[in-house]
Amino acid sequence: MAQVKAVTKFARISAFKAREVTRAIQGLPAADALERLEFYPKKAARIVYKTLHSAISNAENNNNLNRADLIVKEAIIGEGPTLKRFQPKARGSAGPIRKRTSHVRIVLEEGEVKPKASKKVAKAPKAKAPAQAQAEKKAE
Predict the structure, then answer these.
(1) Which residues are within 8 A (CB) of 124 and not within 5 positions of it... i.e. 6 or more apart?
(2) Residue 68: which of 130, 111, 9 has the closest Cα?
(3) Counting CB atoms within 10 angstroms of each CB, which of 51, 60, 85, 105 has the fewest?
């Protein structure tokens, strides 16, 4: 199976904020992931969308893969360098400001989508009403 990747480096967003978006698309077909990112209301979604679009284009043009067969195998956000700035504070002191950056890496793989197994949860028996429980005790 062929793997294709795309990387965006030094994106001006905290990795912590961007990871929420990438968790939502891991394991999805690439076309579905693009559609989901298009309407995701976060700044990170635009950055991940561009990276995913680039990975799909790389797969089609460089590796002659079909867009419909691509699956998002990995969507990883790593921390980049932090820009350190200072803001003036009271009495001549300075407060640090950390402007964080991140690196986005998306790996696509050619293959079939595996349906996720539904989790069956065993239901606990319902609690009986107090009056019903007392009536059963008396019957014994």
Answers:
(1) none
(2) 111
(3) 85
Number of domains in the chain: 1
Looking at the domain assignment, is residue 90 inside a domain?
yes
Cβ atoms of residues 47 and 18 within 8 Å: yes
Let me know if residue 45 belongs to a domain: yes
Count of Cβ atoms closer than 10 Å to residue 17 Cβ: 14
138: left (phi over 0), alpha (psi -120 to 50) or beta: alpha
Helical spans, DSSP H, in 6-129: 15-25, 30-38, 43-62
Residue 94, domain CATH: 3.90.470.10
> Cα 113 vs. chain centroid, distance in angstroms?
18
> What global pTM score does this model have?
0.76
Give, for all 140 residues of the chain, the pLDDT tens digit: 789 999 999 999 999 999 999 999 999 999 999 999 999 999 999 999 999 999 999 999 999 999 999 999 999 999 999 999 999 999 999 999 999 999 999 999 988 766 665 556 666 666 666 667 677 777 76
